[in-house]
Design goal:
Mean pLDDT: 94
Structural class: alpha/beta
Shape: globular
Largest sheet: 7 strands, mixed
Radius of gyration: 22 Å
Strand order of the largest sheet: 1-9-8-7-4-2-3
CATH class of the largest domain: Alpha Beta
Number of strands: 12
Helix content: 25-40%
Distance between the termini: 27 Å
Strand content: 5-15%
């Protein structure tokens, strides 16, 4: 039986005098109230790992063995987590995924890229490519927010830019090469910032899988990581040997050379690496990517099942095959103000459930990364029910 809109929610966006006055019973509250879509919930064990590193890793040179061993461990563990062949390279650099878009315009795109655009973040890489004066204008394949398009084979394209999970809209896509193309003809380059570690993927369909660690890996931002196939490494080295001008901090060949030495070109945030390493230990120690992705899948089943049983809540992504297991977007009926729901939740210690600002919908957006307990997602749904049933009484 579906839950109806409360009888006293009688006009569009009824807003209580102060939603923060609503008290949610302790018996309903999740054990941890962090549901943000990045930065995401950090497990206590990761913070403990930072404390444990205070004497021999933190505050030491990133060119010396303790930090180089840490970088090497992260590279090795990511290779294991993703099941990558031995000839793949894991490359690191400072600046996060936003910086990697610029890195790719200098070191991955030879002449022209094609971008699948279906939200805020997938559009930004296309904009970066379009602004690069040394590249031909990129092509874009677009769809409305809440869905994703498919890549279209094009002989003039040497990089197909995909997004595994569009963080702004909660759309996920199955990664595959455009029909009829091979890595020798064009690279498939995937923004996996909110997907890596929470969604499964097939490395045979991808050449570069890049991300930042503040989502599924529950670390801090400011670092980009790229898993690169042999074809991608060849492209990096070819461009690196060319006369194309590249700022050193954005030079993928320099980043690759340093990664092979288990270091970054310039000083990384060591605590970020410590937290990432601890998260990888947790994932691998419990079964690897199938374990981590399984937790997110369980949370997603709870969230979307709950919304399907409410006549005032609807999954924003209409096609179940395109719904993300790591970022859930739920539209709320116009008679109930989603911002008021979020305000009431926040006042009770349940934070960062707000819709993505530029999407402009009456919506909740809920992180379901592996660190978030599936039981806490269920508790969250009970809290939302409680809030909605009481909002119009204010």
């Amino acid at each position: 039986m579906s839950a109806s809109i409360p009888a006293n929610a009688g006009h569009p966006c009824r807003v209580p005098a102060d939603p923060a006055d609503l008290v949610i019973p302790d018996s309903l509250l999740p054990a941890d109230g962090r549901f943000g879509c990045g930065p995401s919930k950090v497990r206590h064990a990761q913070v403990d790992a930072i404390v444990a590193a205070r004497d021999d890793v933190l505050g030491t040179s990133h060119r010396k063995p303790p930090v180089k061993q840490l970088v090497g461990a992260v590279r090795s563990k990511l290779t294991d987590l993703f099941g990558l062949p031995a000839d793949w390279e894991v490359v690191l650099g400072n600046g996060g995924s936003t910086v990697f878009w610029d890195v790719a315009t200098f070191g991955l795109i030879d002449r022209r890229s094609q971008h699948l655009v279906f939200g805020e973040f997938s559009s930004k890489f296309a904009q970066a490519s379009a602004a690069a004066p040394h590249l031909a204008s990129p092509t874009t394949v677009e769809s409305a927010p809440g869905s994703h398009p498919d890549a279209v084979a094009d002989d003039g394209v040497d990089v197909y830019a995909l997004t595994h999970n569009e963080t702004s809209t909660g759309v996920a896509m199955h990664l595959r090469r455009p029909s009829g193309t091979t890595a020798s003809e064009a690279l498939v380059v995937v923004d996996a910032t909110s997907a890596a570690g929470g969604l499964t993927w097939d490395h045979t369909e991808v050449d570069v899988y890049y991300f930042a660690p503040q989502k599924c890996f529950a670390s801090d931002g400011g670092l980009w990581i790229a898993a690169c196939s042999p074809a991608a490494v060849e492209r990096i080295e070819t461009i690196g040997a060319s006369d194309r001008w590249r700022p050193a901090s954005l030079d993928l060949k320099i980043a690759l050379d340093n990664a092979r030495l288990n270091q970054t070109y310039n000083t990384p945030a060591i605590a970020t690496l410590v937290m990432l390493d601890a998260q990888l230990d947790w994932m691998l120690g419990n079964g690897g990517l199938s374990f981590a992705a399984g937790r997110s899948a369980a949370s997603a089943a709870t969230l979307y099942g709950w919304a399907g049983n409410r006549d005032w809540a609807t999954p924003f992504v209409a096609d179940p095959e395109q719904r993300s297991n790591v970022v859930g977007t739920i539209d709320i009926d116009a008679t109930i103000d989603a911002d008021a729901i979020c305000a009431a939740l926040r006042a009770n210690g349940i934070v960062d459930t707000d819709a993505y600002r530029k999407l402009g919908r009456n919506q909740l957006r809920i992180g379901m990364f592996p660190s978030i307990e599936p039981a806490d997602i269920e508790a969250l749904t009970h809290c939302i029910d409680h809030v909605v049933s009481h909002l119009a009484n204010f």
